[in-house]
Design a protein that fits this description.
The structure is a single chain. This protein is α+β, with helices and mostly antiparallel strands and about 210 residues long. It has helices at about 5-10, 60-80, 90-100, 145-155, 160-175, 200-205, and strands spanning about 15-20, 25-30, 30-35, 35-40, 45-50, 55-60, 110-115, 120-125, 130-135, 135-140, 185-190, 195.
């Protein structure tokens, strides 16, 4: 199977991230697909890597989970060796090196790393190891639909309270047009106080 075909087969989801003035917000859906089958309606796509960094995953579930576990281990090792928490961009570069080193037998995964170190940050890591720091980004098969809303509504000076409804709505509109995006919406907020996953009730209010 060609790489492009693998991405199309396993990349069914929508994840969204926005770096605000006071924190970073992430959102995603909860549907996992296997070809034309809905394999799970409760797939987990947001993981806490450290107390102040979280990651969204899009792609092959097994690849993504192993990569998240590796990043969690690297973050713990960094804490022991350096005596402080790793920051977003250095962690994104670790993910980049792992992905690039596996270029011939790649992890089929795209990541959004959102966190708060000296300021709110959002990093996009592509399956070939490309890393870019962004203020707003989306991944997965529903990302073109999500970008349609994000490009129109995003502002550089947004606060978390403004960005949360936007990222939730971006996933919601993707659910209406992308068959591989669906079921429930999940969201997280990362500030200087740490990573907080929103409850289903909070997300319903945002919808």
């Amino acid at each position: 199977m060609k790489l492009k075909e693998k991405i199309e087969k396993f990349g069914g989801t929508t994840t969204v991230g926005v770096a605000c003035t006071d924190g970073t917000v992430l959102a995603c859906d909860s549907r996992a697909t296997a070809g034309h089958v809905v394999a799970s309606k409760e797939a987990r796509k947001i993981y806490a890597v450290t107390d102040r960094i979280a990651v969204t995953i899009a792609g092959a579930v097994g690849d993504a989970e192993k990569l998240v576990e590796l990043l969690q281990a690297e973050a713990r090792l960094y804490r022991v060796v350096e005596g402080r928490e790793i920051e977003v961009m250095p962690l994104a570069r670790i993910a980049s090196r792992v992905l690039n080193s596996q270029y011939l037998f790649p992890y089929i995964v795209n990541l959004l790393l959102g966190g708060y170190d000296s300021k709110p940050r959002l990093a996009f890591v592509d399956l070939d190891g490309t890393v870019t720091e962004e203020r707003m980004a989306a991944t997965g098969s529903g990302s073109p639909v999500a970008y349609g809303l994000l490009e129109r509504m995003f502002r550089e000076d947004m606060e978390v309270s403004e960005a949360l409804p936007l990222v939730v709505q971006a996933v919601r509109v993707a659910m209406k047009r992308d068959i591989a995006t669906g079921n429930e919406i999940r969201a997280a907020v990362i500030t200087d106080e740490g990573v907080r996953l929103l409850s289903p009730e909070e997300i319903k209010k945002l919808c």
